[in-house]
TrEMBL record, chains A, B, C:
SMART domains: P-II. It comes from the Bacteria. This is P-II family nitrogen regulator. PROSITE patterns: PII_GLNB_CTER (PS00638), PII_GLNB_DOM (PS51343). Pfam families: P-II. InterPro entries: N-reg_PII, N-reg_PII-like_a/b, N-reg_PII/ATP_PRibTrfase_C, N-reg_PII_CS. Belongs to the P(II) protein family.
């Protein structure tokens, strides 16, 4: 199983959620975070310039079976963008095991 | 070391925390998230029906030594449930290294 | 690529952020969490004593290329501490893949 973490613009959330639903990804968790992106602008601190404003982002954490990872990633890339810098990032990592608390069962079937 | 992430009902938090304390898991972090579970009900969108209401969940992140992982998972399963759908999920992943900031020391001893 | 998660005192956040900027780590995400540390003090519950107060912490999630991990960790250890118990923890894990949403490109170059 794979964990797909996407840090997106808050304004694109409902577009991304609906696009994920359309490809069958109905279960995930999200919360709001502050993002420091790679903006080289704004004030100068010890010779390097940084963005002065932190950006409010939405963090989506989605665990899927391996054969769903590519679809999930493509769907986010195709729905979360505006074309402007700051559209966000996706990070993919491995999940060793998954459990459904109600039944105690484990494995990829709990993700369906 | 293993990271155990549990997404539980907020109403079960203190029961889960006390159960973890009883088996010696005294250190973890938590925050509140919104959960989209696998509810196939509610309004219909492009032919598929979804839950209309997002659910407030509590996200627990617990890093433990390998020999503590099973106890931690069992304790959550045994304490977080109500028997109704929506009791939550547990995800297990690998942690390569761990540091205690105060001392700079690393390794599994920093988890004890 | 590595994910470096640091759970620090909120009061040390701007010091840590500035120290990270100085070594070239300009991009990360953070949010506030509640921490249950390893404090064996406070009230007694079934024979074991626990801290009665949960602590507000700041959770930093930083994805870096492998050759930047050590610098990032050292910088956090050197900037986040007060010398008192409760300075926080750092967890390191593996990231399989990374994408920049705007361009769709993947790999370690998206972290620069
Ligand atoms: N290396 C990173 N680790 C953790 N979070 C990151 C990292 N890089 C970016 N983020 C998060 O993603 C958000 C969006 O980043 P952003 O879209 O600006 O990436 P970028 O690579 O600079 O792309 P662009 O060139 O399109 O701006 C940031 O505000 C931050 O929350
Ligand atoms: N694949 C997933 N990725 C990320 N978070 C998830 C995933 N599945 C569930 N969650 C989170 O867990 C919460 C609870 O899920 P839930 O208990 O409904 O799981 P379930 O598999 O549908 O089990 P049940 O049949 O008992 O309802 C969701 O609200 C969501 O926050
Ligand atoms: N094993 C863990 N899993 C998840 N989060 C943890 C874990 N241990 C500590 N934390 C988080 O880190 C915060 C700080 O922990 P703390 O600095 O007290 O660690 P410690 O090992 O007890 O070090 P010290 O001896 O300096 O107090 C906690 O409040 C909690 O949010
Ligand atoms: Mg950017
Ligand atoms: Mg459900
Ligand atoms: Mg402590």
């Amino acid at each position: 199983m794979k964990k797909i973490e996407a840090i997106i613009r808050k304004s694109k959330y409902s577009t991304v959620r609906d696009a994920l639903h359309e490809v069958g990804v109905n279960f995930f968790s999200y919360w709001d975070v502050t993002g420091l992106g790679n903006e080289k602008e704004g004030h100068v601190y010890r010779g390097v310039s940084y963005s002065t404003s932190d950006i409010q982002r939405r963090y989506l954490s989605i665990v899927v079976n391996d054969d769903f990872a590519e679809t999930t990633i493509k769907t986010i890339i195709n729905s979360a963008g505006t074309g402007e810098v700051g559209d966000g990032k996706i990070f993919v990592s491995n999940i060793d095991e998954c459990y459904r608390i109600r039944t105690g069962e484990k494995g990829g079937n709990t993700l369906k």
